Every structure is written in C-alpha cells, then in structure tokens.
Amino acid sequence: MAINVWVRWVSDYQKQAVHEIAELLAQQDIVVQDYDEHLARNPGVIFSSEVTPQICEQLRESSHNGQTQILVCCDTAIPGDAVWQLLGAGASDVLVCSECSTIIHEITSRLRRWAAVDSLVSSPTVQNILIGESQALKAILRQIVEVAHFTDASVLVLGESGTGKELLANLTHTLDPRPDKGDLVILDCTTIVPELSGSEFFGHERGAFTGAATSRDGVFALANGGTLFLDEVGELPLTLQTQLLRVIQEHTFKRVGGNAWQRTSFRLVCATNRDLWAQVQQGEFRADLYYRIASNICHLPPLRERPEDIFPLANYFLKESYSDQNPPALDTPVQEYLLRREYPGNVRDLKQVIARMLCRYAGEGAITVGCIPPDDRPIWTENWKEWRDTGFERAIRVALNRGIGLKVISRHTEETAIRIAVDEASGNLQRAAQRLGVTDRALQMRRAAQRQEV
Ligand SMILES: Nc1ncnc2c1ncn2[C@@H]1O[C@H](COP(=O)(O)OP(=O)(O)OP(=O)(O)O)[C@@H](O)[C@H]1O
C-alpha cells in the first residue's frame, strides 16, 4: 500500500537533492508531496543542514504534540546535542547523514513501520476495545501496538482502579500476531489462597496433596503460547514472587508432586494500581522481578487527567445499551455535569453513572438533568458556575509562588487555549478560531506572534 508523506526543508537545503530523494522514495511506493496544511496529519520528513529556530518551529507546528510522525534528516555537520533539541521540538526520529540519498532504506523502513502502527491504532480491533480521544490514550495505544504486535516483550500496566488496565491486557493479547497463539489466562493475585498457590501457578499431579483427586494444569502451563495476565501483581506475596521469577527466567517449572520439568512460553502482562516502584524500595516487591516485568510500562492516567475521553466514552456506553437503535443524546446541562463530575472510580464510575441515568430515562428525546439520580446530583453553589477548576487555580498559585508574573501567565494561558482548540479541530484553523471566538485572521496573527515570542 502506498504511503503518503509530506516533505519540508529549510532554506539552504538543496531543493534539487530533495527532489532526487522524493523520486527514490516514490520507487519504494512512498508518495511525496510538498508540505501543505491539509496534509498536516500525514507523516513527514524535514531535511535540514543545520538546526535552526526555524526547523524547531516547523517541528512544533507540524508534530501536534508528537501525534504526527516526523523524521528529520540532517547533515553530519550538526552538533551532537542538537538531535535532542529536535526530539524535544517534536521529531519522532533523527537521521544524520551527509548524503541523504544513501539512507533511503532507513527513511523507508521508518515510514513503513509508522504507517503500520498508525493503521493498527486506527483499526476497529483497537478502536472498538479502548475508547477515547485524548492524546494520553492515543499515545498509550501507539505504545501497546508497538510492543504487542512487533515484539513478545512483557508489559506492566499501571493505573488507578477502573482506568482500563484489564482492557489493555486484553488488547495486548488480541494484537499478538502469532497465527497459532494460545489463550489469554487471567489470574487475579488478590484471590490466591496461599496454601493452593503452588497448584494455581504450577498445577499438580494426582494425589500430590489431600483432595488432589486428579492432575491439573496451573496458569503457567495454560498460558503456554499465549498471554499470562497477572492482575493486581503488587499483592503477590514475596515467596510467590520468587517462584514467578524462576519461571520467567528459565521458562521451566515442575508441577506440585511431579518430577518432570515442563517448558512454557508466554507473554507476561502485569497490572497494579499500587506504586510498584515504592514497594520495591520498601522491600515489599523483589527488584529483580520488577525489572523483568517492567520492561515496558504503560501508565493509564485517571479519567480526571483526560477529560476529552468523557464524551466519547459516555456515547459508547449509551450505544452499548441501545445496540439495535440510535441511543438518546445527552442534553447540554447533562454534558456539563458529566464533564465536571469527579470520577474516583474512573471509567467504571462513568459507565455506572450512564447506567443509572438510563434507569430514569423515559424513552423520548435527550437524556435530561432529571435522569441524574438525586444522590448523584451536584449541590448547587456559586462555584458550580465557574469554569475554572482547582487544577487551574493550583497552577496559577505555583506560578505566582515561583515569581512568574501576569504577562507570562497570560501568554501561557492563551497558548494553551490555542493549542487545545487547534488540536481538537485536527489542525483546522477555521474551526479552531470559531471555538476560540476569534476570526481566522486574529488566530493566525496570535500564532505568528507566539512564534516570535519563543
Ligand atoms: N477506554 C475504555 N473504553 C471502553 N471501556 C472502558 C475503557 N476504560 C475502561 N473501560 C470500562 O471500565 C470498566 C473498568 O475497566 P477495567 O476493568 O479494564 O479497569 P481496571 O483498571 O482493570 O480496574 P481494576 O483495577 O479495578 O481491576 C470496564 O467495564 C471497562 O470495560
């Protein structure tokens, strides 16, 4: 499948050389176009013979906070530490080479991999499992596609209760491309009875202990060829941690009451809502086990840190309840209520709120405030009218304590509002200007002024 990319180059880069490279890429089925705002969501390549404020600005503008993949190809003459500057400005990767036409294969392989990841992230397989629009969730989905589809490495999922850790474990298993892969085996470590833990993990032979009337496989054998998901791994007692370490290292184990070594091979996915690293430091979790299970850490942020996910999730839960007809819409005050509400139980909480509202829904028109059960209703105070939340006030207090003045605070507030509006309008400046309540021209002028201020 052809991949569409845009190219940009800073003024002194040989335009002729870029055209030659574009032709070579075209032979690899990569369609190259000059940069244009309409192509802003496509991956791109920037050529530069030096690192200038101009190239960093181009990167900041076109990478949409790292959501758009951009490769920078530089001249060998650039100083070594400049590559970090480019990464910081939003580059996904930096290739340094004196003659760009000699690294066509390196450019091609990166563009192909990114296209494969993007296509999986936007596929129904992923989009129908974990719902959300926030950049945080999208970054996690990219990370999990990269690990689950292209490697067999283990994954540690961290996050508060109800953030979707089990769903992410399911997705990791689903994305595993092995054609004859085994099952996803789930073990909740809080449910392990110490006396039966050996059997639970390793299985047992008939007669191994009182009540062992038949032989039985444990989770290590059942997960062979598939995925073993250890939920709440932070609850695992130290003795069991030692036993787990051995199997992860050696891939072999013996059943309880048995003498024969059995081989097993599985991808390990662990999840916890505890601070596992703090447990390591307090001696409650083995450091050697931590390093083995934490080669890829996915941190699912709480729902309060990704409010952009609230409506997509609410609509998804509504659709789930109305599988064969159109679900009702949410009236504007209900939308505001959902946006402002606190979710200590995260997505699980939101799901339950929707279910409770549907119990009171009479069946015609939008879901209105009367559907919110009395116990869930906010107590009206003057504060409820305010759009500022405590996070915003806290940030201002921190800024003031650090001696940051009104001019800088105002500039950052404006930059943040513009960035959010442009990102949420997928780079469409007209729509962003509408949301910000300014003209297109005023928005363009503000963005140009911000660039000069950088
Ligand atoms: N992004 C999401 N898209 C759709 N449903 C979600 C999402 N995140 C969570 N959920 C739903 O929220 C509920 C809780 O999710 P899940 O069990 O995966 O969370 P968890 O972090 O493993 O929770 P716990 O730590 O309490 O076990 C489930 O019903 C799940 O389907």
From TrEMBL:
GO terms for biological process: regulation of DNA-templated transcription. The keyword Membrane does not apply. InterPro entries: AAA+_ATPase (IPR003593), AAA_lid_NorR (IPR058031), P-loop_NTPase (IPR027417), Sigma_54_int (IPR002078), Sigma_54_int_dom_ATP-bd_1 (IPR025662), Sigma_54_int_dom_ATP-bd_2 (IPR025943). It comes from Nitrosomonas mobilis. Coiled coil: none annotated. It comes from the Bacteria. PROSITE patterns: SIGMA54_INTERACT_1 (PS00675), SIGMA54_INTERACT_2 (PS00676), SIGMA54_INTERACT_4 (PS50045). The keyword Ion transport does not apply. Residues 130-359 form the Sigma-54 factor interaction domain. One of its GO terms (molecular function) is ATP binding. Keywords: ATP-binding, DNA-binding, Nucleotide-binding. This is Sigma-54 factor, interaction domain-containing protein (Modular protein).
